[in-house]
Fold these 4 entries.
Entry 1:
Amino acid sequence: MNRKPIVRALIALTFSILPGVAICADTDPVKIGVLADMSGVYADIGGQGSVEAVKMAIEDFGGSVLGKPIEVVSADGQNKPDVASGIARNWYDSGVDVITDIPASGMALAIMQLSKDKKKIAMVTSAGSSDITGKSCSPYTAHWTWDTYAMSHGTGETIVKRGGKDWFFITADYVFGQTLERDTAAVVTANGGKVLGSVKHPLNTSDFSSYLLQAQSSGAKIIGLANGGADTTNTVKQAIEFGLPKSGAQLVALIAFISDIHSLGLKDAQGLMLTEAFYWDLDDATRAWSQRFYQRNKRMPSMTQAGAYSAVTHYLKAVKAVGSKDADQVMAQMRATPIDDFMTHNGTLRIDGRVLRDMYLFQVKKPEESKGEWDLYRLVATIPAAEAFRPLGDGGCPLVR
């Protein structure tokens, strides 16, 4: 009689009933999906750079967890919710445990619902709508890097308090732009300013002449750019061609990334105020990591690429700590554990999905102030996390009791 199968069964039964002894049922590798914009307006802030940042996080973690290798898949979501949802659904169904990057807010909101339905995790490191942690919040989503509330309160409030009272918005006509305009307009009016008008443009617009003419004719002293990526850089370049800055109007990039400023060049971008969650030249730790990133990508990282590394690292630490890929256990561990890395110090993940961290208000340097190709910012102020992000009870998140 072959007793080996019986012995194995008895051992398994014994371990299953012993208190305090757990056997990991997660026999498949941890799989991470990077759903990015690989060729559109947000390719420089995420794209292949986000994929490389995730690979760096995995390598630094040791390449495996729960005794299995960590795998990465990536795809171009084309900034289209339907395309991105189709990819995400296929990934989740085929064993992907967490999806990150997710550059467009419409994509993020769609994938968040999908991740909730499937009890899988989404870590939004690129999209910015504050609704992600507001009315649309999910127990399976972490909003990692920035949001429209933080940008409107960081840059917008500073401009108003410095005397920029009359505003006109040029806004990307989708969730992100609409939310950014809404949040900033609320800050402007709350601080005694006025919104004289706004105009909306499609994503990936090449000709901003009609929108700039409307802004100019409004008489507003502040032209708030509630768009991002190539849309922002094109707006600034064409505004300079139209002579708006010379006529006394101040351009305010409500969300701009280091790649945008690099693309514009200091001659055109000098003096712009902007808020970011990360800058490569803040301290020794940011410089060391960014130089490693530069060796792989030949450009300095954006805050969203640094955010992808930070988010994946925190996720992997949580998986290791709980000994499981179970989304509920991992999310609980991520909320219970402080976030502390080169990008984020003493950060926390709230119940609504918002990661709290300090934000930084920068001003773009003049050409004569810069010491190198990527020496672009001067730090104006550090905005404490409690001031930078929306209070927990104000967002309408149904998870908040």
Entry 2:
Amino acid sequence: MAAGPRAASPPVIASGLLDTAPTTPATPLDRVRATRWWRGLAAVSRDTAADGASERILRRFGLVIGLAGVIAGLVELPEIADQSRDIAPGATITAVLLAFGMFPVLAFVSIGARPRTIRMVSGAAAISFLAAMVVILLAYSQPTDAIGSVWVYRVLALGVLAAALAWTTGPAIGYLFVGSALSAVVNLFVVPDVSPLATAGDFARAAGLCALFLWCVVYARDAGARVDRESEVASSRAAAVAGAAARDRERARFAALIHDAVLSTLLDASRGGTESPVLRRQAERTMEQLDESRATSTDPDHLDAQSAIGFLRSAVHEVNPGIEFTARRTAGFDDLRLPVTAASTIAAALAEAARNSLRHATMPGREVRRAVTVTVSAGGIRTEMRDDGAGFDQNLVPVDRLGISVSILGRMRQLAGGAGFVEAAPGQGTTVTLVWGGDG
């Protein structure tokens, strides 16, 4: 449950080896699953910072290419029927299903599936498209009259786009040449009176046109990767700036102490010439201040409570400025010394928790409240990311879903003195707790 008292504690995932007894969810799991894709459709239709730039581009290209495949299949149906009058119906149906059948699936999985799934389906669509050309080459055993080109030649760009979405640039370019050559060969054997020179022209036209589509996808994909890298650099830079600010504050405090106490005492001693009780007390007080400064001095690479809170607030609001952020300090304690590296790890895990909430906690028909609470105590910090959204059954999370196990709990597990916990149940929201203590 995201907020308020709980009637029964939902199961907890921790970054350590904790044994917890699962409880029966109050909300039927089927209803939660039924709304998952609806939530995904709503999420993919708006630009948010819940996903990285690369993932958002992947989803939108997957949806567009999938829908384009459906539309192209419908538009080509009359031409397919006309060119297949003398062909066995089974071969025609097989070729159509191979050429267009995976594109509705690609559009569907692009709404809410993981990026790896989208790429796998896109790769399957590309390979299936090549298989369709092979089937046509075998089925059309003799030239067909009154056609300018085989229908699969005209929609080759669909296969190239799917390949560009699924694979890196090298394999996608290889697919472009293979697909263009195969489509030109199909025209050579199916279209009447086609010369080798005309086949070379068909190959050049297909490769040239599809290269434009391939370049668009590759450029957009690389741009998204650059944005993600710049975001990581900006996060590291923010941590460095926070550390520099802590160092500047320490230097200013020490300079003020030197000027106001040490130099003043030395100046009075040089002027006095004789021992004075006032001068003695001033010297003693200066020594006490120096001892206090040495005992409480801040490491340049550590953040105090104020800097740590500001750093975590920036990490959350970079994901979504609408998430509530509250900071609390335990009365009498303000001596937090949080290493900059630890602050970066906590901020990354907290940002991933916020992104997961934005992706998966949405519930149709009502607004989901999300809030982050940071509590600073003596030598430690505790961060909670809560929402009152859909929640989930932790026992049913697939093993390849790495957002929680790696990006949140894994990060905190590797942080000295850190720990992470996830508390969730269907219909009762999710709470992610991140704790760090300097003593471990």
Entry 3:
Amino acid sequence: MSNTTTASARLGDPTATTLLRFATAGSVDDGKSTLVGRLLHDSKSVLSDQLEAVERVSADRGADAPDLALLTDGLRAEREQGITIDVAYRYFATARRRFILADTPGHVQYTRNMVTGASTADLAVVLVDARNGVIEQTRRHAAVAALLRVPHVVLAVNKMDLVAYDETVFAKIAEEFTAYAGELGVPEITAIPISALAGDNVVEPSSHMDWYGGPTVLEHLETVPVSHDLTSCHARLPVQYVIRPQSAEHPDYRGYAGQIAAGTFRVGESVTVLPSGRTSKIAGIDLLGKAVDVAWTPQSITLLLEDDIDISRGDLIVPSGDTPPTSQDIEATVCHVADTPLAVGQRVLLKHTTRTVKAIVKEIPSRLTLDDLSQHPEPGQLVANDIGRVKVRTAEPLALDAYADSRRTGSFLLIDPADGTTLAAGMAGQAFATPADDGAVPADEEGWDF
């Protein structure tokens, strides 16, 4: 990519060939897979043999036209049931932009998959059936998008053909969703009336909705400003591996390898190693076997320091003037994704970047009620698909940024130590308004009182 294109991408120039990661979400049968199939088909991103296979399966089922949902529903179980049960990733491009699309399931029990698909998304497309309007699962997906700090949300009011392309139906749904998502703090919401089955306002403007003057779905995806320039963010290098060849050629080589999570590192810069707090200066940076003076996210590098410091996997190297807080007490909002509940007093493992430590769930202050965004205090546990606040005490100090500042170093996983099952995805810091508390941590009766 040329320097001009890179600069344009950072400035959000819609004419640059940039990359957009986006996820689709919505309730069951709202038409997510059909929308994705229509996008791929009408943007000429479908190979001829793929289209022939879809036409053949559709004909075998007695359909008059190709079922474009089959372009994304790849599992046999999905095709048999006519639903999406896993995250389906698709890659396509137009002349203006490249896309990575995550088609996520609509069932409540698969909300965890939506968390996976939206965790790295720049934009989320939330579908609503025009006949049903905003329902609980719509609210849940809006809450997840807000919690994961997805900067752009598209409300696609689908199946407008089944409500006679009525403008008042669209306007009512758009107003209700925009008000709800706005309360959650979603920074940008764009509402588009569509019919994925008929192709209205997906790639081509609809002739049935002359009252709508906004962009089609593809036009918005091509022009929404996005920036992947993380070089100006807080510099963070989670150490993945310590390299010590101890060979005749490199008898004293000690390098700290990892992928830069955010920011930029330079030779000569003063850095601090967390959680120990020891400081040094960068003596060298190795990138792809060559020495460089500067490196930035998301490059994988090896840092060499001037001082011999005890550093191991899981430590975090940061600029000395920009260190995140280090603590054993973590307060965060979590999406509970496991079938088994998460309860107060439960022993877990907490995985943050390359570091995994023992922890205890000390408190669950509240659970989010999706209907009115109120907080249900002291629920005692979180069950599958719940969103709530937790207070966790870790066995060792961790250096977490607020998730609002860094999606990479402000997130973590809670894991079942018995079988390695992921229990919850956590976002450090304040996500939604919660009742004030005095910071008291209840005593642990199991002997894990860190």
Entry 4:
Amino acid sequence: MELLILIFLPLVGAIITAMMAKQNAAKLGAFAFSLFTLGTTIGLLLKFTPDASTQFAVNYPWIQQLGINFHVGVDGISMVTVILTNILMPLIILASFKHEYKNANAFYALILFMQSGLLLVFTALDGFLFYIGWEAALIPVYFICAMWGGKDRIKVNMKFFVYTIAGSLFMLLGIIYLYLQNPANNFDINAFYALNLDSYQQGWVFWAFFIAFAIKMPIFPFHTWQPDTYTEAPAAGTMLLSGIMLKMGIYGVIRWLLPIVPQGVHDWTMLAMILSIIGIVYASLIAFTQRNAKRLVAYSSIAHVGLIAAGIFTLSTQGLQGVMVQMLSHGINVVGLFFVLDIIFSRLQTNKIEELGGLAKVAPQLAITFLIIVLGTVALPGTNGFIGEFLLLFSVYSYNAWLGLIAGLTIIFGAVYMLRMYQKVMLGTTNELTIGFTDIKGTEKVVLYTICVLIVVMGVYPKPILHLSEAAVQHLLEQVNQKLTGLN
């Protein structure tokens, strides 16, 4: 019952918020429901046992003729993504308080609706229900970007929509195929795990799922929708996409790809690793050339996600544990980066790096918080980015030394272009544009201080996160290895 409350509380909040005519009421209503959901998550976490079992499971018949059940539950892997979603959502809503949105009730209702869809994705144990959650999370962010985005939002958003819908259709075909192969005639995830597909079947099911997940993350060469969409989306939309939504793809690979088609994963691992690592180098090199800070952070995100994807395909405990930590770290850091850039844009109406400079002199609190977030992003020891990237690089290097060395460029390149961007934006002398810049205040302080505390606490003491997911990760890898052994 607690899990049902967790999933549907944001949906109830969306309906109530949609009926609030006044902007301030809609803001406060959405924020209150996001806090209620966070509180429910904390209650769930306190009752959670960090073993390999699926807990708080609910399994109700839904469309019985097709064997579709409302089957949800959480283990250590899904708990990490639930925590990520429900920590970031109040921060993203609070970060939007300084903006005045037309039809604010619709804007905040869509955010809460998306939260409900995300939670369904991260807890679904039925293939069809997973697909419903996947689409339910996509639709709200499409409208958020289309209605409140920048001047090129329609063209950019259409590209985003076409990419994601195409990926969703591939995944739906894969789910339907698995259903047709299942003697039990249902979409239950455990029944899918138990299927004995031959190498050919696993190969094409792998690609049906992988394309959908690769588009969502995104991985090279399925990434081309991302920089434009991140740039044109409203600040809250960019944070939702980068902080939480791309984790749907990462989670999908772990939960739905590895255990169902391990032979397909084994056969195509090297190609998936190479694509991921090409994305690291490619995105980093493109980031060097960016003059718009928001686009630079967008390409930085592609590079970091490339390393996360490479870690998954090492099929190692260190790799998957690194993924767990880095999903949280990346989500927190990228939301912080985009929020700082939104603060700058809202005051100066530009994110062009060459037009900025000297902001540290007039806004020291912003400069300090921004520096902490940048240091977390470049994986400085003692920050949240370090432990995840260390585990990921260790796992990739253990898998293949050359791939590990190339993947390590993400830290070197990232440090160069992120610190250079910080230097040009924050340091130096002020100019006519930046001399009147005002420091952070009110809700801006709350959001940035909270993010900085999370960066430091996770960096100094990552053990709770690693302990939370360790048993579930090891159990998943055991399932994959047993199935591979049985096939061979």
